[in-house]
Design goal:
Layout (H helix, E strand, L loop, with lengths): L1 H14 L8 E2 L5 H6 E3 L2 H10 L3 H6 L1 E3 L5 H21 L6 H21 L4 E2 L1 H31 L1
Helix pairs in contact: 1-5, 5-7, 6-7
Amino acid sequence: MFIIYAAVTLWVTLLSRLSEAQYEVHFTLFRALRKMVEIEGGMSGFFSALLKGDARNAFSLIHIVSMRQIDGIILNILMFTPLGYLVPAVWPKLGRWRRMLLLGTLCSLTIELLQGFFQLGVAEPDDIFNNTIGVFIGYLIYTFLIRFTHERIDKE
């Protein structure tokens, strides 16, 4: 399973893309989220309302203006979720949450650097962030299933 997952991920992120076709580099953090959400009064207005203890008003300042970016965010999270599940299943000693976050970040960073170097697709820090979230979600699923399995075995 791990080898198939790694091969598919390499194909999707690097090998299936044409060099310089639709190539972009973005250094803005949370670029997709900024395109999706508009905050009346900016972040300062939002935090000002929060600090006044008016959370309802603070969150009423947030408006979703576009859902076009959500698919990229979700797909980046989903693409790395199996990594967070499969690595501790194959190599249990790596199955600590800090190691998994580091591994997810390094794998994603490597892909983004290779995309930038070979001018493939869009290289941006949002992908690294979203992929790392995916690894962590996969790790949480693995941890939950292992605990659930052990609890069932212990009860029997």
